[in-house]
Design a protein that fits this description.
Belongs to the GST superfamily. Kappa family. The structure is a single chain. By secondary structure, the protein is of the alpha+beta class. The protein folds into two domains: about 30 residues, no CATH class; about 220 residues, Glutaredoxin (3-Layer(aba) Sandwich). It contains twelve helices and four strands, in the order αβαβααααααααββαα. It has a four-stranded mixed sheet with strand order 2-1-3-4, sandwiched between helices.
Amino acid sequence: PGRPGIGAGPKVGPVLTLRLEPRPGRCAPVKGNDQRSACWAALASQLSGCSMGPLPRTVELFYDVLSPYSWLAFEILCRYKNIWNVNLQLCPSLIAGILKDSGNQPPAMLPRKAVYMKEDIKRLGHHLQVPIHFPKDFFSTILGKGSLTAMRFLTTVKLEHPEMLEKVSRELWMRVWSRDEDITEPQSILAAAEKAGMSTGQARGLLERVSTPEVKNQLKETTEAACKYGAFGLPITVAHLDDKTHMLFGSDRMELLAHLLGEKWMGPVPPAVNARL
């Protein structure tokens, strides 16, 4: 048998029951069908005043912890993700693969660029309030050892514990670009993961997966996705807005990103964040 006033029909699962009570001044007590009509009218009136707000826009950050400018972009976006109401997707990528695919070279391979980059990083670190410092043996640390294992580990973190990706990424940057520590040896990666809040067992379990086909293929696919967006280095920020895709290169395009999002740019350290630093 059907429910009164609704009609007979097969059961389709749990039924949500709404209890509607007239608000003072909204509707007078009535009886029968008139009562039901009044209640539905009251519900429509109440719902019409509800506002869920705009859905967050998706912004992707493709990065490699070997890239200091990636760290700067990462910190700015993490500071603004809630202020701007964006769905920030962190995308661990391999900068070596992007440089090879695009035919580009690391900026430090050119002597003049290397000199400029060292001073540039120092200035930007102070300006953006990021504790970034050049490694003493830059060529061995950055160009010699690379970041393959570290980026595979971050890929595993994203697959298994995405809620930890921001913290683990930051700790790897802190090791190589703040404390001049290794990020290639297993113990170094485990130390970063544990400092980010992972248990030893959890971190070891993830590290054991870095050489699996699933992880290798995922890192490769993410790197290829960056190349398809037009990347020739890292970081790149990709904003998806109204069926359009905007790719921005570097850490110094955040004011332009704010413009595209229709949001306010309040500097690299917005007031709400500055109060906590």
